[in-house]
Amino acid sequence: MTGRVRSFVAAMDGSKGSGGDRDEAAAASATVEFLGAVHELAMARKREPGPDLMSAMVTGSGEGAGLATERMGGILIQLAIAGNETTRGAAGLGMRLLLDHPDEWAAVVRDPALVPSAVEEMLRFRPPVQYTRRTAAVDAPLGTGSESPVAAAGDAIYLSIAAANRDPEVFPDGDRFVIERPAGWRTHVSFGVGAHFCLGAALARLELNSLFAAVAELAPRIRLAGNIGPGKSNQFIDSLSHLPVTL
């Protein structure tokens, strides 16, 4: 199953056609294979549950537990993509920010205790998820003024995470990358808010903190060493395809 997940993620995120875009045929084929594998595993866990997420999802008790097997594929696709592309994007974008701001990188190298605040500032300054979409349940004004436009029930609303993270009322100098911010530095919305808050936020923070602490210790003189490759075209995700460095 692990190999199938990796193949699926690679096809969805990195398979390239002759024009340099994602190979849609490969992505579709990988999706079909992945959904088939999920169905097989779900049926197996129904017969013989184990101490794993899949077993809990198909046999668990409580509200929302015991999900139908046909719903499992979509949920696990979200977990596979969200747990791969976004954290990988944040790592590359964050490293570039530190290398583009050598004084900030030098501060991290001198004092590894700054890594957590540096990670939060990376997520704020250049979030891997640039915006999200919601559907209005009722007619809703898009502002506080009397002439603010109104979203009708059923309208799709695109919310800019990147813009919210530079709200001047929260971050007066939001267009600056500053790893040592005063109280409130953790108020960015890169992981979402409310019921839509990222399920993997704690894991992503752990991974990013571990990565940059290790780089600061093992490669303190890391430098850019060539042209940076932008990530694949995607309306939601920001990432880099490659980041050449010297150690």
Which helices and strands occur, and which strands form pairs?
Elements: H1 2-13, H2 24-47, H3 53-59, H4 69-82, H5 85-100, H6 102-110, H7 115-125, E1 131-135, E2 140-141, E3 150-151, E4 156-160, H8 161-164, H9 201-218, E5 223-224, E6 229-230, E7 240-242, E8 245-246
Antiparallel strand pairs: 1-4, 2-3, 5-8, 6-7
Highlighted features:
two-stranded antiparallel sheet, globular, two-stranded antiparallel ribbon, mainly alpha, 247 residues, Cytochrome p450, 2 domains
Task: Report what the structure shows.
- With 247 residues, the protein is mainly α.
- The chain has 2 domains: 2-80, no CATH class; 85-128 and 169-246, Cytochrome P450 (Cytochrome p450, Orthogonal Bundle).
- Helices cover 47% and strands 9% of the residues.
- The chain contains 9 helices and 8 strands.
- Strands 1-4 form a two-stranded antiparallel ribbon. Strands 2-3 form a two-stranded antiparallel sheet. It has a two-stranded antiparallel sheet with strand order 5-8.
- Strand 2 and strand 3 form a beta hairpin.
- It is globular and about 55 Å long.
- The model is unreliable at 15-20 (pLDDT under 50).
